[in-house]
């Protein structure tokens, strides 16, 4: 039985045990690995990503001493002595960066040895040697040789796939789908367009019609978690393609209210103002009246904070800037 995945609480316990970090830095350590997409949250669990595995393998292979637990804990101890006035910070930084075994010399030595292709290649023990896992600009993908045509086959790997869940069989399926090309699972009776089930960097999705110059962004809808893209029916696909739903116009602003589903679940949106539907309403059944009721309520952030004030729009990207506050209870 594999060990349980780390949670924020259990990884802090491990950091404390190894002497890494301090109470004031634990939150920033965890937020950094999440923001850089080295891990993703799945409930309370922190699941490593393929990007995270690639970074760690590159560092372990070329800068193993810098990612050793004892190096980090030793550095923390030295920093404590600097804070206490027992050690000189300038001499420590000079030795760390430009010393005989300093970072500058290590990078110069290893830079000549590191090959770009190797640096973005992931080695997983459960994957056969005929397949290569890579990290590219648009996320992780798999590469294999087509022996008959003597060419490389590429296929995207959904970003929410945990490295431990990848198997050679799954990767061969992705390659086979990529080689075969999209085949329609049926037609939409209203538009007479073909409906496809495809797999991209964000997972499986259904698509109405083909991508063309006239229609560069055909209508798409993500498959819910647990739905198998290999056996999806045309009726299921058409049901998913009902989103996004235009519920009607806001009586005050005259702007559209849309119901849709996204990375954080189902929601309604009006003029850039989002409200989660949660488990209260079905995104396919929610009405205009219900959406107006939700939008009239104070906005609550994902961390349970309440909207205090809207400051306006950012001058560059026009996104809203808001101030939130938390209700703090003392016992």
What is the element layout, followed by pairings?
Elements: H1 8-18, H2 26-35, E1 39-42, E2 45-48, H3 50-62, H4 69-83, H5 89-98, H6 103-111, H7 116-119, E3 121-122, E4 131-136, E5 139-146, E6 151-156, H8 168-180, E7 186-187, E8 194-200, E9 203-208, E10 220-222, H9 234-240, E11 245-249, E12 256-262, E13 265-270, E14 273-276, H10 288-296, E15 306-313, E16 320-325
Q: Explain this structure to me?
A:
With 331 residues, the protein is α+β, with helices and mostly antiparallel strands. Mean pLDDT is 87; it is low at 327-331. It has helices spanning 8-18, 26-35, 50-62, 69-83, 89-98, 103-111, 116-119, 168-180, 234-240, 288-296; strands at 39-42, 45-48, 121-122, 131-136, 139-146, 151-156, 186-187, 194-200, 203-208, 220-222, 245-249, 256-262, 265-270, 273-276, 306-313, 320-325. It has a four-stranded antiparallel β-sheet. 10% of the residues are buried.
Give the strand content. Answer: 25-35%
Oligomer: single chain
* Largest β-sheet summary: 4 strands, antiparallel
Ends apart, CA distance between termini: 41 Å
Number of strands: 16
Rg result:
25 Å
Order of helices and strands: HHEEHHHHHEEEEHEEEEHEEEEHEE
What structural category characterises the helix and strand content?
alpha+beta
Basic shape: globular
Main sheet strand line-up: 3-4-5-6
Helix content, binned percent: 25-40%
Task: Enumerate how many helices there are, as a single number.
Answer: 10
Mean pLDDT rating: 87
Query: Uncertain segments of ≥5 residues (pLDDT<50)?
Result: 327-331
